[in-house]
Amino acid sequence: MLEELEIRNLGPIRSAVLTPAPGMTAITGETGAGKSMLLNAIRLISGAAADANRVSSGADAAWAQGVFMAGPQTAAAAIAAEAGVEPEDGELFLARSVPASGRSRATANGRSVPRSVLGRITDELVTVHGQADQLRIASAARQREFLDAVAGDQAELASYRQAWEALVAMDERLEKLASQESSIRQQADYLRESIERINRVDPQPGEDEDLKIRRCRIENAAEIAQGVGGALGALDASAVDGDPDALGASDLITRAVQHLRAIHVEGPFSDLADRLESIGADLSDVVFSLSRQIDMEE
């Protein structure tokens, strides 16, 4: 039951407090006196959409509050409790503030709540009758409640609700399984594609190490070319582009052998020449290997 309705800055009403008497209360007055604003105020605290155009001229915001009786065992009190609001001495203070610009604010016993909560609470407390409709009866949920209340089929209703909850749970389970199946199929498709790509590549044992080596050589190609070129130039100047008159280690060894062979005196000179020729042969192998390295880098 509505115990009190307070309004501020709503249309022509600057400030008003309405305290309905027990029984029926009829509000009358001339056109434009503000009768419709009382209904608008009730609709505001019932969670209806706010209209900033209804804020009184020059005011910052319109405000309405309804005080309702709601015992601890009532549906309204239960809905309020779900939103974290407890009635004070069996009363619920439902309020709505509508600024001239910006979003409206809904409160229940001073606690901010979504306006939909006000709507759910007042559904249990307020019935708005229009000229051609009755909002509560127009609700399909209400119609079912009325039918069940008149039919007196509580046992059947409990059985139905239990079956319905089981069906909903089964649907949720089925949806979850379908989602899992889809995920598994996607994973299987990915694995098949991965296997096909791997088979096309046809990897061989140890190939990964060879690829690492090739990658390392490519990343360090400039350093390798510089080092090999320098070593090759030092050993055999003719093997690289450079000074044609420059002599490498091979050339120097050849000259040394020639000088030793020119000595026709008994002594170790012939053996030393042989040893140098052996060193020269080894150097030739090294020069050949280095030349191949340069060809590989190119």
Descriptive overview:
With 298 residues, the protein is of the alpha+beta class. It has 2 domains: 2-133, 3-Layer(aba) Sandwich (Rossmann fold); 208-297. 54% of the residues lie in helices and 13% in strands. The chain has helices spanning 35-45, 75-82, 115-123, 135-138, 140-151, 154-201, 207-219, 221-235, 249-261, 269-297; strands at residues 2-10, 13-18, 61-69, 91-99, 105-108, 111-112. A 6-stranded antiparallel β-sheet has the order 2-1-3-4-5-6, with helices on one face. A hairpin with a 2-residue loop joins strand 5 (105-108) and strand 6. Helix 8 runs antiparallel to helix 10 (269-297) and helix 9 runs antiparallel to helix 10. The protein is elongated, with a radius of gyration of 49 Å. The two termini are 96 Å apart. The model has no long low-confidence stretch (mean pLDDT 84).
Describe the SSE topology.
Layout: E1 2-10, E2 13-18, H1 35-45, E3 61-69, H2 75-82, E4 91-99, E5 105-108, E6 111-112, H3 115-123, H4 135-138, H5 140-151, H6 154-201, H7 207-219, H8 221-235, H9 249-261, H10 269-297
Write a concise keyword list for the protein shown above.
6-stranded antiparallel sheet, 2 domains, Rossmann fold, 298 residues, alpha+beta, elongated, 10 helices, 6 strands
